[in-house]
Design goal:
Largest sheet: 6 strands, mixed
Strand content: 5-15%
Mean pLDDT: 80
Strand order of the largest sheet: 6-7-5-8-9-10
CATH architecture of the largest domain: 3-Layer(aba) Sandwich
Structural class: alpha/beta
Order of helices and strands: EHEHEHEHHHHEHEEHHEHEHEHH
Helix content: 40-55%
CATH superfamily of the largest domain: P-loop containing nucleotide triphosphate hydrolases
Distance between the termini: 68 Å
Number of strands: 10
Number of domains: 3
Shape: globular
Length: 409
């Protein structure tokens, strides 16, 4: 029987953790890239449910091997703990187990890195058994090399009497258990992968083409899936709101149909463990007949986001796959003082120097604009891949004159 809560019981909500963000910029780091990465880390932190109370950036030739930051910055972080009250320190790069242990000892707070933060968000947003397995695998792969920190007090004793036995054997037991867990998860995910392969073969025999939505996280892929398929997929203004792959049937001109797949969005510094763990899911992208790269045109660093997508597509060996580019969220570029409909908006933005081009479409998934042309272009691309080489969105966007044309009266 469950616990009974009386009418007078007050349920208190746990206060969010207070996070302080730390970034090291090397000589190769561009100032704008560092600024964007720090801003993105803050958005990830808020998505995970913590409150950002401050951030700092230190320029070093390379991160300190023992503490990631230099000794002066470490003292500053200790002082800032008193003034900001942070109880969580988040670092923008993956920390080594040694760095994490040393920082926690020096700062006296929980220390995590960008990888652990992303894995935490993935854990929150995985709802299917497959998604949970993939996140579980990535988390265990991340945890394994960090297990020794649980028993670092034994190492500091220097070995000898009192350091052998339970502690050491417990560490080895934990490692063995995690390795077995990883093996079991890999075996189960391999079964999922085989099932997906059989399902894809069945679709191929039926002659149903597959179109995969790719793009940076929060670019509007789920909104576009909803708009094209009239699905009811969760849409949130958060990073990684969609984690589990979702496939819906869409109609094409002249009675044709295709399957449209939406999966996890990409992000800069995406951990290799994520790519490995989500191999079965990402194969949905690699086996698609056509990629639709969804770009958030309103993002001030859209070019860098596109470069990240291109890099990951290259890592997956699918950069040359036939592709359309959809410049999404165009409704947010328009003057709010006047009324716009689809025709007037598309006509106006098509005059933006360089904005409209072959294999590139303007759209607003939220407003439902540009979907007719997108369906036509998908149908045309599926009939036969364009002979011209794929023009990457990053190179194309970098050539755009960012000054819009005059608003029509």
């Amino acid at each position: 029987m469950g616990a009974v809560i009386s009418r007078n019981t007050v349920i208190t909500k746990k206060a969010p953790e207070k996070a302080f963000l730390v970034t090291v910029a090397t000589k190769r780091s561009q100032p704008k890239a560092v600024e964007d990465s720090t801003a993105e880390l803050a958005q990830l932190t808020r998505t995970a449910g913590a409150r950002v109370v401050g951030n700092t950036v230190q320029r070093l030739v390379s991160p300190n091997r023992a503490y990631y930051v230099g000794s002066g910055k470490l003292e500053e972080l200790i002082t800032l703990k008193e003034t900001t009250g942070y109880n969580l320190a988040i670092f923008d790069d993956e920390l080594t187990p040694l760095q994490q242990r040393n920082l926690e000892g020096a700062l006296g707070v929980k220390v995590i890195d960008r990888v652990a933060l992303i894995l935490d968000i993935f854990g929150r947003h995985a709802h299917t058994s497959e998604g949970k397995m993939q996140v579980d695998l990535a988390q265990h792969q991340y945890l394994l090399p960090r297990l020794a920190g649980q028993w670092s007090h034994l190492e500091r004793l220097g070995g000898g009497i009192g350091t052998r036995g339970p502690g050491e054997s417990q560490l080895e037991t934990d490692k063995r258990l995690i390795r077995r867990k990883i093996q079991r998860l890999e075996a189960r995910i391999e079964e999922v992968r085989k099932h997906r392969t059989l399902y894809r073969q069945q679709r191929q025999r039926q002659g149903i083409p597959v179109v995969a939505l790719v793009g940076y996280t929060n670019s509007g892929k789920s909104s576009l899936l909803n708009a094209l398929s009239r699905a009811n997929v969760l849409v949130e203004d958060k990073l990684f709101a969609t984690l589990d792959p979702i496939t819906r049937r869409i109609s094409l001109p002249d009675g044709g149909t295709a399957l449209l797949t939406d999966t996890v969005g990409f992000i800069r510094k995406l951990p290799p463990t994520i790519i490995t763990a989500f191999r079965a899911t990402l194969e949905e992208i690699s086996q698609a007949s056509l990629l639709v790269h969804v770009v958030d045109l309103t993002s001030h660093n859209a070019v860098e986001q596109c470069q990240t997508v291109e890099t990951i597509l290259a890592e997956l060996n699918i950069a040359a796959k036939p592709r359309l580019t959809v410049l999404n969220k165009i409704d947010l570029l328009l003057d709010k003082s006047r009324q716009w409909d689809e025709d007037s908006a598309l006509d106006y933005l098509s005059n933006w120097p360089g904005l409209a081009g072959k294999d590139t479409l303007l759209a607003s998934a939220l407003a439902g604009w540009g979907l007719g042309r997108l369906r036509k272009e998908i149908k045309q691309a599926l009939l036969g891949p364009p002979k011209a080489p794929v023009r990457t969105a990053a190179k194309w966007l970098s050539q755009i004159n960012n000054k819009p044309p005059e608003t029509p009266s």
